[in-house]
Amino acid sequence: MLEQKLLEELNRHKAINKYAKKMIMEQDAPPAPPTDDALPPADDALPPAPPADDVALPPTPPTDDLGGDMGGTEEIDITDLVNMTKSSKKDI
User: Fold this and answer.
1) Residue 7 pLDDT more than 90?
2) Between residues 76 and 29, which one has the greater pLDDT?
3) Which of 8, 21, 32, 81 is the 20 to 30 A CA-CA neighbour of 15?
4) Residue in 7, 10, 29 with CA at minimum distance from that of residue 18
5) Comparing 81 with 33, which gets the higher pLDDT?
6) How far apart are CA 5 and CA 67, in angstroms?
7) Rounded Cα–Cα distance for residues 83 and 77 (Å)
């Protein structure tokens, strides 16, 4: 019983190793050189670029909204924050 399980496990590992070697060898193979028929002509490679006047840009945000109040938050000095934390720990 034990020998049968070990033999099955050994065969499974051999199959995995054989498959892995095959995959590694396939990945290491150099790519086939391209043929001239596979390459498109240079003129047809890219579509023509649209004129600069036809490009649609997103609307720009108003300048008064930039850099303003960030949602009503208040800046707190780090020393004040530490002192508030210490005092709240004393209260508990």
Assistant:
1) yes
2) 76
3) 32
4) 10
5) 81
6) 70
7) 10
Q: Which residue has the higher pLDDT, 17 or 44?
A: 17
Please give the single-letter amino acid code of residue 21: K
* Amino acid code (one letter) for 9: E
Token representation of residue 91: 């209260």
Write out the two tokens for 81. 């924050």
Tell me how far CA of residue 44 lies from CA of 10, 21, 33, 34, 51, in angstroms.
56, 42, 22, 18, 18
The C-alpha atoms of residue 16 and residue 58 are separated, in whole angstroms, by 55
SS3 44: helix
pLDDT digits (tens, 9 = 90+) for 53-70: 656 677 776 665 555 555
Q: Which amino acid, 71?
A: G
For 45-56, letters b (16+ CB in 10 Å) and e give eeeeeeeeeeee
